[in-house]
Amino acid sequence: MLTYAAKNGHANETHLAHYAKFAAGGAGLVFVESTKVRSEGRSTLHDLGLWSDEFIGPLSRIAALIKHLGATAGIQLGHAGRKAFRPLPWEVSGDDRFSMATSTEAIERIAPSAIRHSPKLPLPCAMSAPDIADMIEAFGAAARRANLAGFDVLEIHGGHGYLIHQFLSPEANRRTDSYGGTLENRMRFAADVASSVRENWPAEKPLFFRVSAEDDAGWEITHSTELAKVLKSRGVDVFDCSSGGMLATRSSRLSVGYGYQVRFSEAIRNEAHIPTMAVGLIVEGRQAEQILAAGQADLIALGREFLYNPHWPLHAARALDEPSPYALLPRNYEYWLDKRAQDIQP
Ligand SMILES: Cc1cc2nc3c(=O)[nH]c(=O)nc-3n(C[C@H](O)[C@H](O)[C@H](O)COP(=O)(O)O)c2cc1C
């Protein structure tokens, strides 16, 4: 999840402390937030970047620390497209979430078509054919850098109304070339990005794709299933099933609640025969375990719950009566907590 803590795209101590907490807390896989493949793709001025080699060093410290603490290090790559350069969420209210960031930088937002996301954001520039080719290459170059930084899992952010989702959506994509029009054409950008990333990402390292399985503007679960089949053929290993984000207004169709997106993971897993990850208000160990046991997902992702409790895996393991819950933690914690547990036995 975005920490909004980067300066000029660079990772710093805040990121190190933030991601280390989850690795030390027992998470199996820690994903670094949506890291932008190009500077104009930042959703706020404080997003992380990976658009040049200078970002590799600071990010490699995060990957190394996550691994040192016993977790697998992952990172997500993204581009915000027409939703770029918005203010920090807590600095504005209501519709102003979709307004412009106050910046001295000259910013040009790009998108599949010149259609604005909200009345408060300026018209984006429609990407030319060379712009699209450059962007596909930028995703590949960022994947190469993520590998050099030491990450072992990569996720392409294809949801939440950002650039790839904008190409998928007839709401944001009105192109008349081979990247617009039919579903097949609208999926072409996502597919080409996946191929470019796969070419630059070692074959043995997993590649995830996050989708908005349904959105508020005509993208349905059946479309996501088709997309999953196409992306599987381009080397995507896991489909991460989120939803929404295309429109600036929250739709009543996508109601939010306990485990609200699990049904998307289940449907895509069954129909496209691809491993899926479920996310969205999964908050209890038993709930997570039931989702896995029922075959609704292969992996569980937690976001905000980890802000509340970075030791969530440990609590889940105890709630599920796992025999050695402290083994999830680094050895220097495990040793003392095991000893303490013996001492307090009645
Ligand atoms: C502060 C914040 C930042 C987020 N940043 C990202 C992001 O970088 N990439 C992404 O795919 N989703 C992002 N999300 C969405 C979360 O990954 C997650 O899908 C969502 O919060 C629902 O899961 P949860 O109920 O476990 O938090 C963010 C959510 C929040 C609240």
Indicate the proportion of strand residues. 5-15%
Distance between the termini: 42 Å
Describe the largest sheet: 8 strands, parallel
Briefly note the structural class of the backbone.
alpha/beta
Q: Estimate the helix proportion, in percent.
A: 25-40%
Placed side by side, the strands forming the largest sheet appear as 2-1-3-6-7-8-9-10
**Weakly predicted, low-confidence segments:** none
Mean pLDDT: 95
Rg result: 20 Å
Please trace the helix and strand order, writing H or E for each element: HEEHEEEHEHHEHEHEHEHHH
User: Outline, from the CA principal axes?
Assistant: globular
Overall strand count: 10
Brief summary:
Helix content is 37%, strand content 13%.
Please characterize this protein's 3D structure.
- The protein is α/β, with parallel strands linked by helices and 346 residues long.
- 37% of the residues lie in helices and 13% in strands.
- The protein has 11 helices and 10 strands.
- The protein has helices spanning 13-24, 56-68, 129-148, 163-168, 183-200, 221-233, 262-272, 285-293, 304-308, 312-319, 331-343; strands at residues 29-36, 48-49, 72-78, 110-111, 125-126, 153-158, 207-212, 238-242, 276-279, 299-301.
- Strands 2-1-3-6-7-8-9-10 form an 8-stranded parallel beta sheet. Strands 4-5 form a two-stranded parallel ribbon.
- It starts with 12 loop residues before the first helix and ends with a helix.
- Bound molecules: flavin mononucleotide (FMN).
- Flavin mononucleotide binds next to strand 1 and helix 9.
